[in-house]
Amino acid sequence: MAFDCDLFVIGGGSGGVRAARMAAATGAKVALAEESRMGGTCVIRGCVPKKLMVYASGFRDLPAEARAYGWDIAEGHFDWTAFRTRLHAELDRLEGVYRGLLAGSGIAVHDQRARLVDPHQVELADGTRIAARHILIATGGRPDRPEIPGAEAGMVSDDVFGMERLPGTLAIQGGGFIACEMASIFAGLGVKVTQFHRGTQILRGFDDEARALIAESIRETGVDLQLDASIAAIGPRAQLERADLPASEPVPAARALPPGEPLAVRTRTGTILDTDAVLFATGRRPNTEGLGLEDLGVRLGRRGEILVDAYSQSSVPSIHAIGDVTDRVNLTPVAIREGMAFSRTVFEGIPTAVDHDLIASAVFTRPELGSVGLTEEEARAQEPIEVYATAFRPMRSAFAGSEARVMMKLLVSQATRRVLGCHIVAPEAGEMIQLAAIAIKMGATKEDFDRTCAVHPTMAEELVTMRSPVRRD
Ligand code: NDP
């Protein structure tokens, strides 16, 4: 069979673009289709705009802190429109960078949707068919909405960055990465936030002590965090107040409400809360619909994710998949690594499996949570451990009179002395955990941490100065 190209990539996010560029660098002829904006979730409607909003919201506390340090600074006012204009200019710039990288690598870009028609052929939305020796699916995921009456009236994370106005009040559903980050961000921007989470504690999967501290700090930023609580319906208050409203009765969407009609949410326990906007952050779903995968026999998992082996190969040999569409570890740097491993395996002939062990991550709340390795609960279930932990008021904010505390925690194997997990709740914990992760990935023991001289005065020095365990099995 004659091929038009060696590789056709569907999806121009971080993973797809990296894989395409690496394959092109080996001399392969590469094409890529993206139906939306180049850069994908991370650059256009995820990590990047979110982090810029984290920075924007962080300035709220600065005037008070600066005054404690002797500066004569007045409170200011946050201008959403001014910020949003600059934000979108920055996203445009970054999209341009991505396009430049693709053009510079000689990759043919198709700004349209693509679907598979056979194991070696894709069809673009305009009907063009392109035959490729290999096809890489990197279509990512999208936010999921709970199936409740009026759900379409709520926003998902994609909608946040394009909001016309900053809401005065915001109800958020969810207790994961996005819900917690957005609650912190919006509270920092002066929005009155109510966060509902169905579980008994936020951030399931993280270390329990760290979860509790983040929940406390979210509340301290002014968020009304309600646990064991869920939004059951959204709509006009009058309709929600009808006692006989069955759970499944559709409530008109906010877009369909008469202008000025106030929005409200009703919780599972029947409480009604007026709110200017609702944000669902209840997880994400792989983008596999309408790609023609089932017809080709590409095996999908329960959530619609493409099932792949350690080399990102699907059940159809010419089709590989990387990133969130495979629902392995849904983080940008992981998708990039999967893309690089794919290219090395297929185009350089060096079989390369991605190592999904000990991936550090950060939740960008205020303070941040940085985490790598096992939680205390997981480590204890695995083997006898020692727990080294410290909580203290950091110098910078303590001087300004804040009671805010930071936490550092190391979980150590009694048998091997290796550090099995590290959890940091602190400003800039994301930066700290990146460095701690190198040592832990290298197999550092507690004694390796101990013989590392402290950098003084810093918060992170506590990681190398904890002498006695606070708990020992
Ligand atoms: P998460 O999986 O982190 O959290 C989903 C939350 O929604 C959980 O609290 C979950 O509760 C809750 N939930 C799920 N379904 C329902 C439902 N039907 N009704 C009510 N609550 C529900 O997803 P996110 O959307 O926050 O983020 C998606 C992914 O994006 C993350 O897993 C992460 O991989 C990535 N991400 C990473 C970031 C980072 O690295 N800083 C930032 C943002 C996103 P429960 O715990 O009970 O299941």
Secondary structure blueprint with pairings:
Blueprint: E1 5-10, H1 14-25, E2 30-33, H2 40-45, H3 47-58, H4 62-68, H5 80-104, E3 108-110, E4 114-118, E5 121-124, E6 129-137, E7 141-143, E8 155-156, H6 157-160, E9 169-173, H7 177-188, E10 192-197, H8 208-220, E11 224-227, E12 231-236, H9 237-241, E13 263-267, E14 272-275, E15 277-280, E16 284-286, H10 293-296, E17 319-321, H11 332-347, E18 361-363, E19 368-373, H12 376-382, E20 385-392, H13 395-399, E21 406-413, E22 419-426, H14 429-441, H15 446-450, E23 471-472
Parallel strand pairs: 1-2, 1-6, 2-3, 6-17, 8-15, 9-10, 9-15, 10-11
Antiparallel strand pairs: 4-5, 5-6, 7-16, 12-13, 13-14, 18-19, 19-22, 20-21, 20-23, 21-22
Bound molecules: NADPH dihydro-nicotinamide-adenine-dinucleotide phosphate (NDP).
